[in-house]
Amino acid sequence: MLLTWNLTLHPSTIVQTWLSSASVQSVVARGHKALVGSYDYWYLDCGAGQWLNLDNGESYDKWFPFEDYCSPVKNWRLAYSLDPLAGIEDGKRHLVIGGEAHIWSEQTDEVNFDGVVWPRASMICLSGFPAHFG
Q1: Which residues does 132 contact at the CB level (< 8 Å), separation at least 6?
Q2: How far apart are CA 104 and CA 66, in angstroms?
Q3: Residue 47 domain-assigned (yes or no)
Q4: pTM score, two decimals?
Q5: What is the pLDDT along the chain (134 residues), one digit of tens a residue?
Q6: Does some domain include residue 36?
């Protein structure tokens, strides 16, 4: 919202990003603290398939092969490869205060939560913040 609508926020506002590294760069360039998030790397439910609601008589054939908007699956290797400080100039790196992996609850419940979240979320914890915040 900050970037799309060109909002003016209080300077102490922390902005959570979820689109890309470019979003993080834009947020810190405006002087705000940022939480890194990226659907290119850290959306944990990406690639699980499209949410289908076929109550209106639609055929499965219309949606095959059931990819979602962020397919393919963002595996642990991809999650680990994100540099949360990529493109952030040295004088602004202190504004990147952490990160967040994302998962949408529409396709996640107590049955699949552990298998969907932990294999990749554990890599995110190791992906570059320890060296930055050490």
Answers
A1: 84, 85, 93, 96
A2: 17
A3: yes
A4: 0.74
A5: 778 887 888 989 999 988 888 889 999 999 999 999 888 888 887 777 776 667 777 777 877 777 877 788 777 778 788 888 989 999 999 999 988 888 877 777 888 888 878 877 776 665 555 444 44
A6: yes
DSSP 91-118: GGGGGEEEE--B--GGG--TTTHHHHHH
In a domain? residue 4 = no
- Please report whether residue 81 resides in a domain: no
Which residue range is the domain that position 38 belongs to? Answer: 14-71+87-133
For residue 14, what is the enclosing H or E element? Answer: strand 14-16
Domain count, the chain: 1
Sequence-ordered alpha helix ranges (H) in the chain? 21-29, 76-81, 113-125, 129-133
